[in-house]
């Protein structure tokens, strides 16, 4: 199968556009300026509360707290148009040290 040059150029432009939009809202402060991202984060928090995924509790004195961060992802349809916005809150578990924070 031979691919036409124009077809490949269009596909490359689409790929670059997707990559640009994916990193557009890398920081929380930037995402908070967009109502779409705020709505996405709100719906995610509501789902976490509804499903009782997490439970807030007091941190034991011997435990070390770890932070968390929002991860943003823009999903595109087959035409390269934005399909939906996804956000998830993840723990920064990579800051933990074996033998100190866990065994």
Task: Please give the order of strands in the largest beta sheet.
Answer: 1-2
Q: Largest sheet at a glance?
A: 2 strands, antiparallel
- Structural class of the helix and strand makeup? alpha+beta
Order of helices and strands: HHHEE
- What multimeric state do the chains show? single chain
Q: Average pLDDT, to the nearest integer?
A: 77
Tell me how many strands there are.
2
Enumerate how many helices there are, as a single number: 3
Shape: elongated
Task: Characterise the protein shown here.
This protein has 103 residues and is α+β, with helices and mostly antiparallel strands. The protein has a domain at 26-56 and 63-103. The protein has three helices and two strands. It has helices at 5-24, 28-32, 35-51; strands at 68-76, 82-91. Strands 1-2 form a two-stranded antiparallel sheet. Strand 1 (68-76) and strand 2 form a beta hairpin.
């Amino acid at each position: 199968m031979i691919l036409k040059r124009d077809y490949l150029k269009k596909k490359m432009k689409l790929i670059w556009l997707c990559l640009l939009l994916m990193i557009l809202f890398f920081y929380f402060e930037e995402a908070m300026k967009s109502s779409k991202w705020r709505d996405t984060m709100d719906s995610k928090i509501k789902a976490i509360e509804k499903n009782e995924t997490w439970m807030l509790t007091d941190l034991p004195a011997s435990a070390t707290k770890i932070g968390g961060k929002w991860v943003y992802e823009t999903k595109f349809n087959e035409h390269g148009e934005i399909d939906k916005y996804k956000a998830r809150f993840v723990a920064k578990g990579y800051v933990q040290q074996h033998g100190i924070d866990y065994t």
